[in-house]
Design brief:
single chain, 666 residues, alpha/beta, six-stranded parallel beta sheet, six-stranded mixed beta sheet, 11% strand
Amino acid sequence: MMHRPLWLIARLSFLPFTPLAGTETPARSAGFEARQQPVITTRAIPLLHLDCKTFRDLNRNRHLDPYEDWRRSSQDRALDLTRRMTVAEKAGIMILPVLVGNAPFGKRATGYDAASLQDLVRTKHASAFSLMGEMTVSDLAKGANTIQAEIENTRLGIPALLATDPRHGYQKTFAMSVGNGGFSQWPDPTGFGAIGDPALVRSFAELVRRDYRAVGFGLALSPQADLATEPRWPRVSGTFGEDSATVAPLVAAYVEGLQGSASGVIADGIAATVKHWVGYGAAANHGLDSHNFYGRFAALQSQDLANHLKPFEAAFKVNVSSVMPAYSIFRGLSVGGKPVEPVGAGFSRVLIDNLLRKKYGFNGVVLSDWGISADCIESCRNGSASTKSPGFESISMAWGVQNLTRPQRFAKSINAGVDQLGGEPDTLPLIAAVRYGLISQKRLDAAVIRILIQRFDLGLFENPFVDVGLAQSQVGRTADIAAGRAAQAKAMVILEVRDKLHLIPGRTRLYLKGMDAAAARAAGFEVADDPAKADVAVIRLSAPYQRLHPNYFFGSIQHEGSLAFPLDDKDIADVRALSAHMPTVVDIYLDRPAILTPLKGSSAMLLVDFGASDAVLFDVLTHRLEAVGRLPFELPRSMKAVDAQDPSKPADSKDPLYPLHYSASY
């Protein structure tokens, strides 16, 4: 067989390689699996040709090493590569820093900061990155290729793993979800909980998988398997609801669709991260969130642990790739008779090593949530002294271990069972922990092997680059947008229909509040500026909230506090005034449960959504699309009832206004 010279291979290697039809596979030898030639993409790394097969020569030694051989198992390849790595390189693969964009915070970027990327790759040996910024589909794909091209120049050629928070949902909160940026738009996970259809969730997750791989992502920081048992908790919208019987099959369907199979992640799949292990939704202190020092405790009771575990058990049955521990301190919780240490879950040996690893046998990657190894400075503990919210320097979730040194925090987390530190940009504390004997070489290697197996399973060592043109044509397709709109509508829950509505396009004149008149006109309605000249009023509201901690980074952006509308709320007064003179439709977006007692019986139609556009609401009102959702959580009758409920238990408020799974017929 004639081999091309390496210089020519390098010149041609920017082209994807696909084997010729009819290529024969040589007989399997020991240690090899029966695999077809995968697609090969490369830029600077030369190719090797052997036995009519093509491989990437990742370390450029002109020899096919075991970790470069895609015919071998992921475990064999990971073992070989781990033996070749220095401690610094191992430390680099155990961090997953945030890669900042080339635009100021809050502005849409077109790529990534080149200096930051080079420092992380060349100095820190990082090869996994969290990409939080909103970009166009084209820029995401180009940015992913830029990262992979930079990382090709490293000694061992380990490809990058790019991670993202959800991008297809409705609600956008920093470090919890990302702006849409051209992806099709679907309801929040609570909307899927309202629909309750695992087949739809699996189909949606398959779409997410195709979209993410098209733009270069390999790791999804989802699904959120928490049970939303505390209604005041700011992260309810990221869950599938509070009923484990509904949530568990939806979590399993999402993981299976995202990863590509029920047996684990496939070569063109997305590694799923089920979170937050375990009981994060049982937030203590009136639902305050454990992103914040003041909300660091959870109220999970030992007798309720089994219920909160059910969605995770469903994820384990379909071989979820990663698990992310919660931030919370589970004060007073015992597992199998062993008390859980009063530290964040990412430092808990009982929760990770004993419960997750030993009892459930989970051997995938345990990825910490972001910021658990950072120093909690004064503004982290007590908020900013000024009215301005603290900056990124105040972000730390090192709960219960604030007084440890950084190397000690790394060691405590890794020895508890964490493999990879989310959001961490620095390897020096980890290297120091190894040097001081706080982390054994055996434990270090076990973490690295798990991380590498995940990356080999994803096929990134062969095919790290993406086709920008294909991404542009595939992401946000017309059919996907239509499917997202149908899901937004289907998730809506109709709570009351008191009067028959006559909404006839071309004949009905509407008065609107809280929505875009262009959507009404596009649906065929006239819009009146004066309610006296309208036939029907359509009002959109959002669930009430308070900003109780504006001087904390996350407290300044999270929805906290009361679920009730203020007594002097102008929107409620407007609904009552309009309803007295004309049929009125009221729709409320629920990112958390809300107390709708003031609205009950005051409108012709009352419904709630979990992320839906104005156009979708008109589709429902004109019967173009159907709303069939049922409440994924109960809606309490009063704040007194909320205060009396147990944050650890689902649907337990006294005499709820609308119970769990409620829906009125329309």
